[in-house]
Amino acid sequence: MDAVPVRVLEYLTEVEEAAEDVLTTKQQIVDLDTKRNGNREALNALKNEMSDSEKVKVCFGNMFIKFSKSKTREMIQKDQEQLDKEINDLRSALKAKVNHLNVMQGKPELRGYNLSPLSTDEVQAINSLLKR
Asked: Which of 13, 26, 49, 57 is an S-S bond match for 64, by CB 3.0 to 4.6 Å?
């Protein structure tokens, strides 16, 4: 009789850990997306509000460093690409984690959840077929 409550407790612990992992991944996506939005705002400010000859001050940790506008834009764009990659990786991992959590809880797998968007080549091929 003692084995049943122990198994139930272990099961609930596993489900709780899986749910916590899903929530943590969601929060990481939100945090990275906030950073990506800040970078996008900085790129727009660089493009619209300053002349090309000016140098800009960039904050690194607790100090500001002057960089040329083009170098700053290049650094932010590289950071944007890295953030996009990290967010996409987390989103694909999140799908697997949610499916694992659903299996643990005895729920059916989500339908249509593993869809991926069309690539630009696929969209162009479809558009060319539709124009005929």
From this structure: 57
